[in-house]
Amino acid sequence: MLVEWSKNMEIGVPFVDADHKVLINLLNQVDDCIAEQEESTVLSSVLESLIAYTEYHFAREEKLMELVGFSGFDEHKALHEKLFHKVRSIHHSFEADRESVSLEDVGSFLQSWLTQHILGEDVKYRDVCINNKDAAKEAGLVPFISSKDGNIPFNEWGLLRVLLVDDNPNFCKFISTILKAVGISNIEVTGSAENGLALLSRRPADVVLCDWIMDEMTGTEFAAKIEEMGLPSKVIMMTGYSIDELKSKSSETNISSYLEKPINAHDLLDTITRTAFND
Ligand SMILES: [Fe+2]
Ligand SMILES: [Fe+2]
Fold first, then answer.
1. Ligand closest in space to the Cα of 75
2. Considering the domain 7-140, what is its CATH architecture?
3. Where are the domains of the chain?
């Protein structure tokens, strides 16, 4: 692991500390993916989600500083813009040339964020924010994704039971990080389709996130078996292939939604909530 969370990084505002942990987690995952020469759709998924989560964290943190009338707000906001620009440029370089993102780039960015920003800048608003629980509560409610139809019950995320079936450990770690970040903590993870069916028979999940290509059976066969077992779980199929191609191969099966890799955090959460609550 590139950087581990430590107590001295704690600001004392729960949502801020939780966000910082998620960001450190995602940055470490970027580092792992590069070091292990992970497939590009996985690294791209993590990078896109890192951008989205950074934007979300800065929006929440800026709302908090605004609500408490922090005197260093303008200066802090300008530093956020610089950091955000850096995350985006790492992603753009990667999209232009998949070999271009180096461990050194990510490492130096991570160090500048942690040592200079969290430890050097975020601590400055600590004293004016730490005892203002109302402001922290209001700022913490800034949504991660906006509902396209205004009808997604984000507050019910914590009730969802999710099974994730994918044999790529880095991809599973990434999906789990995003789900836990928004309060979906009831997650089981397996790399095996057979094991996934055994887990479902013991404890049905509301949503099953499933890879299309698996060793023991295809995603279509897996979804069909869930239907045969009479389970109420809704299946979201994840694939590196195009969704149209997948739909043509699986039109008769029990699949509620599709996600094409790379999968960013917004699409992941939007698809899960639509599938679980609205379909
Ligand atoms: Fe900040
Ligand atoms: Fe921060």
1. 1
2. Up-down Bundle (1.20)
3. 7-140, 154-278
Q: Give the global pTM.
A: 0.91
Residues 6 or more apart in contact with residue 192 via CB below 8 angstroms: 165, 167, 214, 215, 216
Peptide bond just before 262 cis, omega within 30 deg: yes
Nearest ligand to residue 15 Cα: 2
Helix 14-35 crosses helix 103-111 at what angle (to 10 degrees)? Answer: 160
Predicted local distance difference test score (pLDDT) of residue 81: 95
Q: What is the CATH number of domain 154-278?
A: 3.40.50.2300
Q: Using CA atoms, how far apart are residues 160 and 167, in angstroms rounded to an integer?
A: 22
CA distance linking residue 247 with residue 251, whole number of Å:
5
Residue among 77, 16, 27, 75 nearest 51 (CA): 27
Q: Tell me which ligand sits closest to the C-alpha of residue 10.
A: 2
Nearest ligand atom owner, CA of 120: 1
For ligand 2, the distance from its centroid to the CA atom of residue 235, given in whole angstroms, is 35
pLDDT value, residue 153: 62
Q: Please tell me the predicted confidence (pLDDT) of residue 4.
A: 80
pLDDT < 70 stretches in the chain: 1, 147-154, 278-279
Q: What letters, b where the CB count within 10 A reaches 16 and e where it falls short, cover 178-204?
A: bbbbbbbebbbbbbebeebbebbeeeb
Task: Determine how many CB atoms are found less than 10 A away from the CB of residue 108.
Answer: 12
pLDDT of residue 221: 92
Scan for tokens 């908090």, then name that residue: 64
Closest CA to 209 of 224, 227, 196: 196
Distance 192 CA to ligand 2 centre (A): 37
